[in-house]
Amino acid sequence: MFAGRSVHVTAVRRKNNEISFLEVPKTEKGWVRNLKKIPLLRGLVAIIEASAKGSVHLNFSAEVYAEEEGEVKQEEPSFFGKISLYLGVAVVGVLSFVVGKLFFTLMPPAIEYLAFNNLFEGRIYHNLLEGLIKIIFLVGYIYVISLTPLIKRLFQYHGAEHKVISAYEAGLELTVRNVQKFNTLHYRCGSSFIILTVIIGVIIYSFVPYDTFMERIIQRLILLPVVIGVSYEALRITNALRDIPVLRYLGYPGLWLQKLTTKQPEDAQVEVSIASFNRMREIDMRNA
């Protein structure tokens, strides 16, 4: 999936080599655009929007896959039926993100408390251990799901997207040969945002005192929007500094995580990503 100025485009290759597209125009309320201009708040808006839209595009890919596998094709829904379907999928996507984020936010402090609370004093040390447990959870979860063929293929397309963007930013013609020259890693990836929430969380939590385990859990819930907002701003900063020799290392933790969330794509997958990117640019230029 590629997001342009006016549209989000996803491309899927069918068994007959035909490439199908899902084109979702960008439509934003004025108040949403205003929120995206406010530091910290724009991070919350961006992550909710990405979860919702990402779910819609993944659902499209799943539908095409099911159709190609010979499952019964359902009757084409009406316009309002499509709107209801997309809205439902978007809500599920947002809820899935919220539930997952709550799990990775609340389980590590609970485990840290049960295992290490009576061993030593010091809030900062306990917060560091909590952060380490979060990273172990995160890396372990991504590694395990990456072993499944479906997720491995998803991660290959993720890598193909990064390669296409890198080739475009380098000013090269978007051919499979040119695109495959580039790395699967990219500074502006959401994977970088995930690892930043862990690092930023440890820093923020260390400045807020707590006396009991329940206070610690409530504190994590209350500060979760703050952690997300600050992490988003940190992601923007690391991307802006990526060409400065010393400061570019600030973005390395996210790049390291991308070694799990991206895989080397096949040429056919790169072709699909190029087609999606070109369709997005074509629509953007038409609507300019």
From TrEMBL:
Pfam families linked: DUF1385
Signal peptide interval: none
Ranges annotated as spanning the membrane: 83-104, 124-144, 185-205, 217-235
Keyword annotations from UniProtKB, A to Z: Membrane, Transmembrane, Transmembrane helix
Keyword Translocase listed: no
InterPro entries recorded: DUF1385 (IPR010787)
Name of this chain's protein: DUF1385 domain-containing protein
